[in-house]
Amino acid sequence: MGEIILATENDREQILELYQAQKGREFCAWDEDYPSVETISFDLSRDSLFVMKENGKVIAAISIEEDMDVDNLDCWNKALFPGGELARVVVDPSFQSMGIGQKMMEYGMKALKERGYKSIHFLVNKHNIKAIKCYAHFGFDVVGECYMYDQDFLCYEKTLQ
């Protein structure tokens, strides 16, 4: 598979197309407003958006998120702070079920550790079976559940090694 690199402004349109391709798919909770061009701009401005390319085409993306509402949930182990969040893991539908999501998560966890985070935490829609299967490989702890953004989520957390 392709190399994972920091996204650039030149990748913006392809990333948006990847996001759009997921909307409306089974278990995808994204809607017409999220993720958006503004979401991509926010991630690019913080050097927090990474992509995998195959023959010059963006086939996957992942972001280091900043969301105080998520960070402030009571379920996170405060001894593992600072904890970083990964979000918007997306793989081109024609490349799914090939381990790319796992590779993107591994890269994201490495990037969090390099940035000084002690742990990773994130939310997974309770009904997103594909994502739950992908994340099972990593041995995350499910430390709680919450209802945010009009969805039911599982709260995943793990110490970064």
Q: What can be said about the biggest beta sheet?
A: 7 strands, mixed
The CATH H-level superfamily is Gcn5-related N-acetyltransferase (GNAT)
Identify the overall geometry. globular
> Number of folding domains?
1
Q: Would you count the extended β strands for me?
A: 7
**Could you tell me the mean pLDDT?**
93
User: What is the CATH fold-level name?
Assistant: Aminopeptidase
Unreliable segments (pLDDT under 50, ≥5 consecutive)? Answer: none
CATH architectural designation: 3-Layer(aba) Sandwich
Structural class: alpha+beta
* Radius of gyration over all CA atoms, rounded: 15 Å
Main sheet: strand order: 1-2-3-4-5-7-6
What CATH first level would be assigned? Alpha Beta
Query: What's the N-to-C terminus distance?
Result: 24 Å
Helix-residue proportion: 25-40%
Strand fraction: 25-35%
Number of helices: 5
Give me the strand/helix succession: EHHEEHEHEHEE
Summarize the structure.
With 161 residues, the chain is α+β, with helices and mostly antiparallel strands.
Q: What would you note in describing this structure?
A:
With 161 residues, the chain is of the alpha+beta class. It has one domain (4-159): Aminopeptidase (3-Layer(aba) Sandwich), CATH 3.40.630.30. Helices cover 29% and strands 32% of the residues. The protein is built from 5 helices and 7 strands; from the N terminus they run E-H-H-E-E-H-E-H-E-H-E-E. The chain has helices at 12-22, 37-45, 68-71, 100-114, 129-136, and strands spanning 4-6, 49-54, 57-65, 83-91, 119-125, 141-148, 151-159. A 7-stranded mixed beta sheet has the order 1-2-3-4-5-7-6. The longest helix has 15 residues, at 100-114. The radius of gyration is 15 Å and the shape is globular. It starts with a strand and ends with a strand.
